[in-house]
Design a protein that fits this description.
There is one protein chain. This protein is flat. By secondary structure, it is of the alpha+beta class. It is about 35% helix and about 15% strand. The chain has a domain of about 60 residues.
């Protein structure tokens, strides 16, 4: 239930309504516990193959194995690091570069030629279309 009081403003000689609200009803808050989960755990079981044999290394050698070089690839040293990077042979690089340059040039040339043909043929096609349209109107 709302109660309305009227206060009189003496300067303006006006009654201004004010609302008196009732006290809020106290609500109970709900406590929700944090969720928990049972995380599964297990001990991994490693089963070695049945034909496992040890490799015998000659004394004085390290266990690091060199990667076999792929055909058509060469290794180049990266400056300021101890890393090597595989790079294709020169013949392969020349072939790929030539193919890329030719395809880009052909695309650009075909685009320019198509634009030229469109600009040249547009007026011819418009006049032909108008003549055909006029002849159809006369026949009907």
């Amino acid at each position: 239930m709302l109660l309305v009081n009227y206060a009189r403003n003496k300067k303006l000689n006006v009654e201004i309504p004010t609302i008196i609200l009732p006290d809020p009803i106290p609500l109970k808050t709900i406590s929700i516990p944090l969720p928990t989960a049972d995380v599964p755990s297990y001990t991994p079981m490693v089963v070695p193959p049945s034909n496992l044999q040890t490799e015998e290394e000659p004394e004085g050698t390290t266990s690091e194995k060199e990667e076999p070089e792929a055909p058509g690839m060469r290794q180049i040293d990266i400056p300021f690091t101890d890393k090597q990077m595989p790079v294709p042979e020169t013949e392969i690089l020349v072939t790929a570069t030539t193919t890329a340059v030719v395809s880009v040039a052909a695309t650009l040339t075909a685009t320019a030629a198509f634009k030229y043909v469109v600009t040249a043929m547009k007026p011819i096609l418009k006049t032909t279309w108008k003549k055909i349209s006029q002849s159809r109107k006369k026949d009907s």
